From TrEMBL:
Domain Carrier stretches: 7-98
InterPro entries: ACP-like_sf, PP-bd_ACP
Organism taxonomic ancestry: Bacteria, Bacillati, Chloroflexota, Chloroflexia, Chloroflexales
Gene3D superfamilies in the record: ACP-like
Protein name listed in UniProt: Carrier domain-containing protein
Source organism, top-level taxon: Bacteria
Length: 105
């Protein structure tokens, strides 16, 4: 299976983010993009909605690419720069995990 493009992964994260925001009943930001913050003071989600997003993304990735990934594990939490900082950093992290999984799978 070919590795999805960075644009495809970014779109998957953005789609999941839109759903998580709608479910959390928070106001939808005017623009969602790679630089949109997922954690910290400028975050568009609260902690519960972030967990919802992560679980949703794991399910989407398994359905679309037939690969079971765990996004929030010790590896993610021990990184100097959290992969959950922004939409773009999360998409990049997913790409790295997919590349590793497909290389070993």
């Amino acid at each position: 299976m070919p590795l999805p493009t960075p644009e495809t992964l970014l779109q998957i994260v953005l789609d999941g983010l839109r759903e998580a925001i709608e479910l959390s009943e928070r106001p939808m930001p005017a623009q969602l993009e790679a630089s949109t913050s997922l954690i910290g003071k400028q975050a568009v989600l609260d902690s519960l909605a972030l967990v919802t997003l992560i679980v949703d993304l794991e399910q989407r990735l398994e359905e679309e690419f037939e690969v079971a990934l765990t996004l929030a594990d010790d590896r993610a939490m021990s990184q100097q720069h959290s992969p959950f900082r922004t939409v773009g950093s999360l998409a990049e992290y997913i790409g790295m995990l997919l590349a590793e999984e497909l290389a070993h799978g």
